Fold each of these.
Amino acid sequence: MVDVTTTSSDLYPVTRVADAREATAAAGIDALLLTPGPDLRYLTGYDALPLERLTCLVVPAEGEAFMVVPRLELPAAEHSPASRLGLEFVPWDETDDPYSLVARRIGPAATVGLADRMWAMQSLRFRAVMPGIEQVLAGSVLREMRMRKSPAEVAALREAGAAIDVVHALVPGLLKAGRTEREVGKDIAEAILAAGHATVDFVIVGSGPNGASPHHELSDRVIQAGEPVVVDIGGQMPSGYCSDSTRTYSVGEPPADFAAYYEVLRQAQDAACAAVRPGVSCESVDAAARQIIEDAGYGDRFIHRTGHGIGLETHEEPYIVSGNTEPLAPGFAFSVEPGIYLAGRHGARIEDILVCTETGGERLNNQPRDLVVV
Ligand code: ZN
Ligand code: ZN
Ligand code: ZN
């Protein structure tokens, strides 16, 4: 009675909890407390619902991991990929205090690692039942594991990249002068699901001046002829792995100054992708893009970092930003997405997901990067 496919054993190997326990012990942390979210899913494959009732995987540095679950969630947990792990499920009833239950089972401890995305209401309840125990982020232990994608994770990201490429291939047919951003965005959201994603995470259609706001989403603005449009879209696949890709289109011939800086941007994005190889620092990938944009006089128009890691979360470590000296290693997956934004007028961004291989960077998005005039 277990819904487990072979892909889930490749993607979510049963050895991860043991690996995490070793890393927890090595870090001098007594236990990890992982509530529903990417850390829990990474270790177990269980895509548990984040709820006010406590579900928590406890990974002690010594001894066996166990999962505290509300009794009404027990069937879901037992039918999830977590059931492959031989974990003890510890159900609690509506009138029990699951926080005290966890504290009692952990016993004397100095430090616990909380899931990075644990809700504050839960972390404060843990603090109340474990007074004097230091709380740190579980990410301090799990980041090294999560940044290095396994071949199965790379395959899942490649599948996500191919799915969002299918959507970008449809975008030129959806962009027309006279349509609103929202109308185009609704069609894109449907296409994201039709391409195999389980959820639509974001749809940015930034036409004309809205393209100069990097996280503009959708508005009722009508797209005009001669306008550049920034389209940044992504979703989560049934595997749990995410897509994220940006292309900038022009509805009819763009203004001359736009065409000039778009070409600078394209070269900057290429240079940053070409800089990717093991041992190169995250900040030097950022610098490879930024240098070209600065040399062309648009340095102050590139107002964000060059990229972010991606996996079970759209934004995770490593961040491709000045000051991050972390060296790239095979399996690191991240975006390369420089942008140039002219406030009040228009903007452009080009974004691909890359995986660092033994020899360089593999792009997981492969739609054309030359300006597409529709
Ligand atoms: Zn973003
Ligand atoms: Zn994006
Ligand atoms: Zn991104």
Amino acid sequence: MSAIWDPQHECMSRDELEQLQLERLQATLNRAYKNVRCYQNKFNALGIVPEDITSLGDLAKLPFTTKEDLRVNYPYGMFAVPLREVVRIHSSSGTTGKPTVVGYTRNDLKYWAGLVARFMTAAGVTPDDVIQITFGYGMFTGAFGLHYGSEAIGAAVIPMGGGNTEKQLMIMQDYRSTVLVGTPSYALTLAERMEKLGIDPKSLSLKVGLFGGEPWSEAMRTEIEQRLCISATDNYGLSEVIGPGVAGECPFKCGMHIAEDAFIAEIIDPETGEVLPPGSVGELVLTTLAKEAFPMIRYRTRDITSLVYEPCACGRTTVRMKKTMGRSDDMLIIKGVNVFPSQIEEVLFAIEGCEPHYQLVVERRGTTDVLEVDIEVTENIFFDEMKKQRAFLEQVEKRIESVIGVGVSVKLVEPGSIQRFEGKAQRVIDKRTL
Ligand code: DLL
């Protein structure tokens, strides 16, 4: 069993935790209201002042904050401290328009490192580890977050950065890396290259993988664990809220423990904004409780998940979030049916002969949506045997349809023909909006 980094905050009773959350919430609201015009305007519009919030239940009275608020206040309008007190700036990995800018004070950076150290410790990292970071260093919070978390633990960091796959493998062998950090899709890219180069994963020193930054299925976890001979854990975060460090798995891998002394998590109905009862699936909304430079009040993450409040066997009392099903804004609507790419991934990984590389292409033919699933198949399989190929395609199409509820057309593509990713994977090409 791995150690607990901060037993005081990770193992609190619910009563104690809620008391702490309320105190920190009130302090955060006061600071945000006083220093951030956007919050002031929103509260005033509803006739609310921070003093009206006297219980955690009152949180639901407060307005949401959205990515749009951050865009409108680009670049520094949401900062609650003068720029003089900001010591680091990051931005989100937005693909459209201007990125959103986030800032950290010196205290924020220290606190952030501690939160990351928490989930890394929960995943089994110790001061004896050698940690290879394959996230890109730069504006993305992934690399710096895990970097400073590792240093807080006292582990040795190899700041490799993204890409350069063969060099990654050489360093992994020569420096005897014990922990791999990156996106789950890059872990598979590494596994694939290792196989090509004839590197036996058992000859490496790797034991743990800490993956996050994008959604991945349980089936993908199994695939990574088998191909790299490691224990793979999930961790979640977003730059607007802090970066990595919001939540991470313990060795029981039954949901990611949310650092509840630092964040309040709510699940809402993404359509109505109504708070849903415990256990419901909906959109995760996060409020920061300890950030100075960039407090976020009821930030709509757009990530779809559910929360588990039952105690965990590891001893932590914090709520756990299930693997996200994707984002409400990544959700595809095919012929009116809501489809998450992760549902299709789950099916593909369970089918023998499918490589873990796929792409979804959505088109509109006339007035009908058509979803094509391109999948790579393992070397030499089927391409010469039409009958077998057709049977295989039909089997995959049927299985996907039974899970998502709409028909798809599956296309087999040559091994290696789907783009590989060094950072976050982009699996959907929606030609309807192009
Ligand atoms: O991805 C922060 C991060 C870096 C988390 C490294 C974990 C590890 P952004 O670039 O702002 O920040 O993207 C945040 O990525 O809203 C989710 O949609 C998605 N995401 C992050 N982690 C996970 C995960 C970082 N473990 C957005 N599972 C979030 C599913 C994830 N989705």
